[in-house]
Amino acid sequence: MLRNGIPIGKAFGIPLKLHWSWFIIFALVAWALSVGYFPAFYPDWSVELSVAAALVTSLLFFASILAHELMHSLLAKSTGLTVRSITLFVFGGVSQLAEEPKQAKDELRIALAGPLTSLVLGAVFWAIWFWSRASIDFLAAIAYWLGLINVFVAGFNLIPGFPLDGGRVLRSILWGRSGNLRRATRTASNIGRGFGYLFIFGGIALIFWGNWFNGLWLAFIGWFLQSSAVSSYRELAIQDMLKGHTVRVAMTRDCIPLSADLTIDELVHRHILTSGRRCFPVAIDNRVVGLVTVHNTKAVPRERWSTETVGQIMIPIDQVKWVRPDESLSTALQLLTEADVNQLPVIDGGAVVGMIARDNILSFIGVRAELNV
Length: 373
Hints:
Layout: E1 6-11, E2 14-18, H1 20-41, H2 47-78, E3 83-89, E4 92-97, H3 104-132, H4 137-157, H5 165-178, H6 181-208, H7 212-242, E5 258-259, H8 264-275, E6 279-284, E7 287-293, H9 294-298, H10 310-313, E8 315-316, H11 329-339, E9 343-348, E10 351-357, H12 358-370
Parallel strand pairs: 2-3, 5-6
Antiparallel strand pairs: 1-2, 3-4, 6-7, 7-8, 9-10
């Protein structure tokens, strides 16, 4: 869901992104503040002043969410983990880590960093409100709401249901006691699903009582929480199943390079349609120079298939993500997910020795799961 986003820069070397859904929640928060909160508490304000305060408050609110996630990421980096990015989206923000923490104590520190940051920010904003409330209404109004919402964010994230921060705290405790990360994750995920269903039912009840907006929002949060809990556990289970296995055991080896002079028409009718494969290495003088995929092919108008060649549409090899045969299957799966591609070439000593595709990994997982291995 959050692989793609609009890059907005970097902080401490960590890429920052905005998911398209962020614009929805930003608009909703700004609208609610400008037509509801500020006019209710400051009726003498003009419409322009309420809108200005709402926009400033919304921006600072999401800056607070970013600070929350940034502290998670910085603590993760301090333990040696790789942080791929931080993405702001409709439910706040998420730090995308390349792997799980190595120890329970690291998980605990990383999980607590965010809520503690939100609590500190809440205290700072309330201190600003206390200092300015008698003289600067504009600043005091913004600071009070930001103090309140940061404390709420801290409290909500400490709900003991995975993948919320509180669920990660619970998982770290269970993990530390049992030494079994997968079992701890399953327990914390089940609790997260329980809270998710509780929110869904609570939201439905609010809708029946006439509070449709808050009810719909609460039910939506519940749906997201329970589905995230399921997918988080499934992802860990898959990584656990792939642990200790290399690309070599799942890759396909019938990987004959195609000539760069081959026409697209020949590529389609002699290779793609007859083999069912979606990706082929391309060679010049027995040296692999690129890859051609079904995606590259279908981007070319049909009338040019007889004249345009594979060499013209291929992806140059220096732009291709690839893996070695001795790399772990979990690394290959991460690369496939990050690059949002269906297959990767397997290169050994400069030569393409095979291909590893999502289907290969899914088949490997399916057989092992069926045999309970």
